[in-house]
Amino acid sequence: MRFPSIFVVYGHCKAHILRNKPPAWGLHWISLRRGSWRTAANWTQEALAMNYGMSVSASGTLAALHRLDTLSNNLANAETPGFQADFALAMQRPAPSAAADAPDLGPNALLARLGGGLFTAPNRVDVRPGPMERTEDPFHVALEGNGWLRVEGAAGSTEYTRDGRLLVDAEGRLVHAASGQPLLDDGGSIITMDPNTTPVIQTDGTILENEIPVAKLGVDVLPADGLQKIGGGLVRLVQGQASAATSRIHQGMLEGSSVNPIRAMTDLIETNRAAQANLELLRMHDTTLDLAWNTLARPV
After folding, report:
1. Are 245 and 147 in contact (CB under 8 A)?
2. Maximum Cα–Cα distance for the chain, whole Å?
3. 131, exposed or middle or buried, with CB in 10 Å at 0-12, 13-18, 19+?
4. Model pLDDT, residue 98
C-alpha cells in the first residue's frame, strides 16, 4: 500500500514581512506512512499549489493591516496643525528562487516565475502643505511652500517641523510648543527672546523686538524620501541633504493637517475589506490542508 507525501513550504512570516527582508525559504516533505520529516530534493507543482496561496494571502493580510494602522493614524491627526500624512507603501516580494538562501530548485520553471506576495516598505511622508488658517496669535506661524522649521533635538541634532505653534519658555527660548524643543535660527543657534514682548515675524523669517531684528527663523527644504517621523510633530532627515529655503512665513496663521478626512475614511474602508478578503482566503487554504491531512492519509 502506497501513501502519498505532503510537501510543506515554510518561510513567510510576519517578522520577515515587516522587516523588509526576503523569507528563509525551505521545503520539506512528510511521509504519512512513517511520520518523518525529510528534505525534499525537488519542489513540485502540487506542493506549490497547496501552500503558495496560503503564504501569499498571509503576506497580503499583513500588508493590509500595516496600511490600516497608517490610515488610522492619519485620520486621528486630521485636525493636528502641521501634520503631514503618511503613505503606506508595499513592495513585491521576489520569487523564492531569487532569495539569497534559496535551495537548489532544479528545473521547476513554474516556481521560478512565481513571486512571493508582498512585504511592507518604509512609509513615505506626504510633504504637500495643508490649508492655512488665520488665528491672529503672534506666536503662530505658517510656512508657504515646502520649507521646514529647524528645531534642536534632544541630543543636539537638528530636527524639523511644519507645526507653527510657538512659545517662549521660562529660559527665554523660542520653542516648538508641542515638543518643548527650541527653535534654531538660520545660523544654527537657539533663538532667545524677551518673554515680556510681543514679537513681529516678517515674511522672510526675521524676528523683530521693539522694531529691532534679534534673529531669523531657520527654514530648510528637505528631500521627501529622506524623512522619518519621530513624534511630537517632528521629523528627522535620515538620508539626503537639507538646503536653505526661501519660503514665505505668515505670522498669525497656522498650517492645518494635510489629511483629507473623507479620502482617509474611504481608503480605510477599502483596506479593511482587502484584509478581510485575505483572511477568508487563509481560512479556505486551512480547510483545504485539513482535508488533505484527513483524507489523503487514509488507507485505500
Report:
1. yes
2. 99
3. exposed
4. 62
The partner residues of 86 in beta bridges, in order of sequence, read 125
pLDDT confidence of residue 13? 36
pTM of the model: 0.70
Alpha-carbon distance of 291 to 273, in angstroms, equals: 27
Share of the chain above pLDDT 90, in %: 47
Tell me the mean pLDDT in the region 64-78.
93
Residue 300 — pLDDT band, cuts 50, 70, 90? low
Q: How confident is the model at residue 95 (pLDDT cuts 50, 70, 90)?
A: low
Give the CA distances from residue 107 to residues 22, 26, 29, in Å, rounded to whole numbers and listed in that order: 22, 16, 18
Cell numbers of 117, please? 506576495
Residue 107: name the closest of 29, 45, 192, 17 by CA.
45
Residues 6+ apart with CB under 8 A from 274: 60, 64
